[in-house]
What does this fold into?
Amino acid sequence: MDKENLNVSHLAWCGLIALHTARQDGFVNSPAQDNLFLTRWLATAEKQRRFGRKLASDISWLLREGRGKGLRADLPGKLDYLWRAGNGNLQAQNDLFRLQHALHAVKLTGWIYMVLAESEWSGRRQLRLSPSVSGIYLERRALDTGFDEHGRQRIALPVRITGELTGLDVLLNRSGWRRVPAGEDGQMHHLLAESFSDA
It folds into this structure.
């Protein structure tokens, strides 16, 4: 585990423990109060420089999410993802679990995530994707057949992606997945687990 992930994991753990304590003490009783509490906690952490300079951008991003999206920011969910991704437990899970975790994280950042029926994936009724909207789109049939009974990847998963690929790659890599371009249109890719080999 690299030091950057360990630091982000520590930040997330501290935030989750602070939230849990506030819930136990009766200061926080609803999802809206969760968001308000964590936004204030992050603002105080930023102001007092409780965490290293390397985490300043992570704290700023979480604050922007909390202030800008309100309840939709799901700050507890984001902190939980950062904690699981950084503490090493996530890598011990099977491929399917780690993919679900990565896609949940992608949704938390505001991306659209959709599983498409075969008719929406190709043919006359194929869903038209806007390059200006950040989204990740998987085919249902490939998802259904892409994993064995133990959750290990069996086939390269075709996926269409629109949006900023660099940020997506970071989230995928933290969950033990990677993206490989698979088409000339720039939208078609394959998702591959670290352990996957098609040889």
